[in-house]
Amino acid sequence: MNLYSNDLYTNDIDYVCGLSLPWNKLQGKSVMISGATGLVGSFLVDVLMSKNIDCKVYALSRNEDKARARFIKWGNNNNLQYIQYDINKPFVNDTIGNIDYVLHLASNTHPMQYSTDPIGTITTNIIGLQNMLEFSVAHNATRFAFASSNEIYGENRGDTELFSEEYCGYINCNTMRAGYPESKRCGEALCQAYRSQKGLDIVIPRITRSYGPTMLMSDTKAISQFIKKGIAGEDIILKSTGTQYYSYQYVADTVSGLLTILLSGKSGEAYNIAAENSDIMMKDLASIIAEYAGRKVVFEIPDAVEAAGYSKATKARLDGSKLISIGWSPRYDIRTGLKRTMDILKTVNAN
Questions:
Q1: What is the dihedral of CA 80, 84, 87, 91, to 10 degrees?
Q2: 111 HSE (CA, 13 A, CB side)
Q3: φ, ψ of residue 205 in degrees (nearest 5)
């Protein structure tokens, strides 16, 4: 899938590159990104390479060939270095000196993985994080960003409409599905421990349900399934009543938020990357995609394996005002972002 041939995608990259961020902090620096071929990580790599600020990017992924194919535009550009690495193993690389910025984006983020590989979900979020933190301390990182999740808020207890960064909802930890949100919570606590004990400068972006043309075709999240059905010209399958009310974010705005936090966020603080113009009920999300694809929404009961991986939260809307207060301004609302995603993927998949 060569996204670089699509003008809408390259326009998204140019848009983020053109934002008034303190890019000078990255000039001539090194940036390491785990999960570099994921939805958020791959867009971030393209932004950093396109910005042309002599920034060396270390792209970590489990499959170097896959990474090279994804970033084909950059060919043998020396500013993009590929590292094949399983984050569940200690990270030792004697060829790398000091690292300026580390962004830990790698995680199991698909409901099917939560139910079929709950152990891997937890170990990636805790052991993998610790390996990256240890590497960052050993290589004198200037700042570490841990990509946390909207799921750390748990169930809305009915006492708020929007989750601020201080909110802490209910999670039944004695369930298999709790592995993902609880391990993200533990990851945030581990980051605070490394700040206190090792003196590592850390910020915590809390990423909400993100989507966009960089989504993996293997993604099993509901919004990804809807989009795949839409671009294939098929009916949209909704496996619930669709009254879940969530925050979503188009990938370009997620990455602009991530960069704002990395470059302007306060050490030790968590920031929600979310905007109210992308909050929507799942049934309305499905309807937008179905309408744009010229199809209809079909209700279907999920099987036991699928159902086990689904979030039990019925309302999870995030308050993004803290991030907005330090300069972030999202560009796309949910309808515009969905249509843009489908337009890009239809063109790319047709080539």
A1: -80
A2: 18
A3: -75, 130
Domains of the chain: 3-210+250-278+316-333 (3.40.50.720)
Question: Between vectors from CA 273 to CA 166 and to CA 88, what angle results, nearest 5°?
Answer: 90
Question: pLDDT band for position 305 (50/70/90)?
Answer: low
HEC secondary structure over the chain: CCHHHCHHHHHHHHHHHCCCCCHHHHCCCEEEEECCCCHHHHHHHHHHHHHCCCCEEEEEECCHHHHHHHCHHHCCCCCEEEEECCCCCCCCCCCCCCCCEEEECCCCCCHHHHHHCHHHHHHHHHHHHHHHHHHHHHCCCCEEEECEEHHHHCECCCCCCCECCCCCCECCCCCCCCHHHHHHHHHHHHHHHHHHHHCCCEEEEEECEEECCCCCCCCCCHHHHHHHHHHCCCCEEECCCCCCEEEEEEHHHHHHHHHHHHHHCCCCCEEEECCHHHEEEHHHHHHHHHHHHCCCEEECCCCHHHHHHCCCCCEECECCHHHHCCCCCCCCCHHHHHHHHHHHHHHHHHC
pLDDT digits (tens, 9 = 90+) for 130-186: 999 999 999 999 999 999 999 999 999 889 999 999 998 899 999 888 999 999 999
Q: Which tens digit of pLDDT belongs to each residue from 106-118?
A: 987 666 777 788 8
pLDDT, residue 1, reads 64
Query: Residue 306's closest CA among 154, 149, 113, 173?
Result: 113
Model pTM score: 0.94
CA-CA distances (angstroms) from residue 137 to 124, 127, 144, 191?
Answer: 19, 15, 9, 12
